[in-house]
Amino acid sequence: MAVTTDPTSLDGHVQEAQVYEIEDLIRPSEVQQLTEAASTPPEGPEQTAQLQAKIAQLEAHIALKDATELAPRLVRGRYRSAGAQQQLELRVDVDGFRPTMRVSGDFFQTTGATTSYVGSFIVEAPTITSEPGVVKIEGQGRFSFPVASKHVRVTIPRGAGGPPQPGMAVVRFSAGGAAAPTATFQCSFMSPHFRSIQLEQDSVAGTVPFVSYDTGSLPQPATSPARVLSVTKAYDEAGIEVQTAGIPSVIDTSGAGADATWDDAELHNAMVNHFSLWRDAPLWHLWMLVATSYVDPTVRGVMFDGFGAFQRQGSAVFHNKIKGSDPASQRAQLRTYVHELGHAFNLLHSFQKDLAVPPQPLGPNGGLGDLSWMNYVDRFRPPPPAPGGPAAYWAAFPFQFTENELIHLRHGFHRNVVMGGQPFGIGAGEVDADLFGDPMADNSGLALELRSENAFRFGQPVVVELRLSTTDQRGRTTHGRLDPKDGLTSIAICGPSGETRVYRPPMTRCVETETEVRLDAERPAIYESFYIGYGKDGLYFQQPGRYQLRAQYIASDGSRVLSQVHQVTVRSPRTEEDESVAELMMGDEQGMLFQLLGSDSEMLASGNQALEEVLDRYADHPLAVYPQLVKGANASRDFKYLSADKKLTTRSADPSESIRQLDRVVGATLADRGVDNLTLGWAMKRRALMEARAGDPERARRTMDQMVETFRERTHSPAVLRDISAEAERVKEAVTREKR
Q1: How many helices (H) and strands (E) does the chain have?
Q2: Are residues 550 and 566 in contact, defined by beta-carbon separation less than 8 angstroms?
Q3: Measured between alpha carbons, how far is 567 from 549 in angstroms, rounded to an integer?
Q4: Are 149 and 173 in contact (CB under 8 A)?
Q5: In angstroms, rounded to a whole number, what is the distance separating the alpha carbons of residues 445 and 524?
Q6: What is the tens place of the pLDDT at every residue in 473-507?
């Protein structure tokens, strides 16, 4: 609609205002004011400006109304056929609020008392014909399964002044042209929403779950109308219905002690045991936990369900990081909640979309310039010379998903969207075999090195190390997030068969911090190691042979820095004992335990039993060091457990068992048959903390002195040794505080 000062042209606005009049968007008094304005010409520029502003506000309200309420003469929404055996769920998206001009659908088959998913289709560029009383939509469909009849024609009756709901949608599939239909479905209108999910949300005592935020409370784009947004309302605007499932529970933490932090193992265990709607199946069900804080205090939220065949059913937000009742805090909470639910719908971060299937084009500046719920606020970087950062993001963000994200949410093939369907980001195997490909030019001033052992035993957990340094003598500033869990680093793995996949960790953490690291002569590099043997796709090193690895790091300015191609060999087992140990070490549950560094979860019981068998029968085998690390790490944590009545209890750490297992890890490593250097440092620090907790702070301080001396022999970098010495002193201070 064009804003005008001609009062005779206000009739159309008045009629639409009367059609859309509802209390929470347009008040009856506003409609009356516009009606009076239509019969009285404005006097002077001030009244003209006021009238223009009122019309603009009305236009924005009308657009929002279309997002949540089916208006007369619209055909958008979800339809369903009533067949006894085969059903079609149809989605029509050609009018209303932010139409993507597509139709799509899912086929289901009913046999006996069960219904199974068959496949999906989408028509991405249909021809749309609006005739008196009817809308016709047709075009070639793209199907998730082989079909001969790819031409789709949808016919929907609608009247200018008829009922608010459209009539029966008739869907015909044919080979196109004059060919007779091979299948016809009559679909009744079901909802103005394209999809619907049930959200079960629990919160830990002491947290305050987010309710709503008035987008007009702080400056925002002029084109984005001020409105009150809840998480449900934000998804309403995207055409997705979020229904509350059950009664939200407040988890009693009185039995959990003072430590309110959560780790991945505890979150996963809480979901599988206490999400009442949880099933090992693809369902439109989702659990969100409003927790206190994460073991990494910079993490705002996490989509932690990346285990097994049915993923993306659980997420968490961390109240201590995002709490606050002021408008800025409420705004941040809204974005965090919507963002984490977006991951459950299989939406990747804005800067990771080229890893989806099919690979999606990245937005401005490699995706960092996207104005989306799925971007990082503090990493927002539009193309130069436009400013970036949080202030620039919020000044331009219209509180909505991008067009491509809308298409995925509304029309993505069923298994690619439904919780428990495809693993998160499925399709990374479409990455080119050249492992990301070299850039035409690299002026980032940064260098990334990926390194590890050159050869691994079959069944050995594959751990790699990343080193980020600067090539600029003046130094460079960037973020220090090297762990793939944080989404800013990816590792491609090309296996012996030539297939290339991107390692996708089971947990997707959303870290938003403006903390930067300065790489220069004083601190030339940062390091981090992590296990990449198991992820959302299962085990990545399941067969002996040669593998090629390459890492990609997204810097603060959007630069994509590539490592060299690193080759490793997975050796075939040499003895029957090697083969037996490998069989016990390899499995989804064992892989998850290596990821979590242990867990008490009953869902991982068989994995724990397999690792126990390694220690019972093959304690002297070189690979036994890894189950020892898992047991030592798990024994060192106070494991939180959610009871059936949703009370939080804690299994206290076992310092003696932890020290016993970690001693073995350290001893094996010092004998050159153990873990990598970074893991060794972690194990020694954890052992020192357990020694202090066991009442022997002096031994803990000696362990830290031993760590410094050990690495004095293992590194020739003064900067690395300086960092290790500083970390040892911090642990000694922590030990002293605990003694007091």
Answers
A1: 18, 36
A2: yes
A3: 6
A4: yes
A5: 12
A6: 899 999 999 999 888 899 999 898 878 888 989 88
Question: Residues 387-399: pLDDT tens digits?
Answer: 899 999 999 999 9
DSSP readout, 303-371? E---SSSS---EEEEEHHHH--SSHHHHHHHHHHHHHHHHHHTTPPPGGGGGGSSSPPPP-GGGGTT--
442-461 burial: b if 16+ Cβ within 10 Å, else e = eebbbbbebbbeeebbbbbb
Q: How many CB atoms lie within 10 A of CB 609?
A: 12
732: Cα separation from own chain's centroid? 37
Compute the distance between CA of residue 612 and CA of residue 618 in angstroms, rounded to an integer: 10
Record the tokens describing residue 65, joined without a space: 């109304």
Which residues, at least 6 apart from 144, have a Cβ–Cβ distance to it below 8 Å? 119, 120, 121, 413, 415
In DSSP notation, 600-651 reads: --GGGHHHHHHHHHHHHH-TTSGGGHHHHHHHHHHHTS-EEEE-TTSEEEEE
Angle at 253 between CA 247 and CA 259, to 5 degrees: 135
Q: In this structure, what token pair is assigned to residue 93?
A: 């998206």
The tens digit of pLDDT for each residue in 146-205 reads: 888 899 999 998 765 555 667 789 999 998 877 788 889 999 999 999 999 989 888 888
Q: Which stretches of 483-604 are DSSP H helices?
A: 576-585, 588-596
| CA of residue 650 relative to chain centroid, distance | 28
What residues pair up with 114 in beta bridges, in sequence order?
111
Per DSSP, the three-state class of 173 is strand
How open is the CA angle 488-462-485, to the nearest 5 degrees? 20
The CA-to-CA distance between both ends of the chain, in Å, stands at 71
Sign of CA dihedral 241, 362, 350, 487: positive
Separation CA 592–CA 605 (nearest Å): 11
Q: CA nearest 253: which of 244, 245, 262?
A: 262
Task: Extract the runs of DSSP E, i.e. beta strands, from 437-488.
Answer: 446-451, 455-456, 463-470, 476-478
Torsion of CA 606, 612, 613, 616, to 10 degrees: -160
Residue 156 and residue 134 in contact, taking contact as beta carbons nearer than 8 Å: yes
| Residue whose structure tokens are 């009367």 | 18
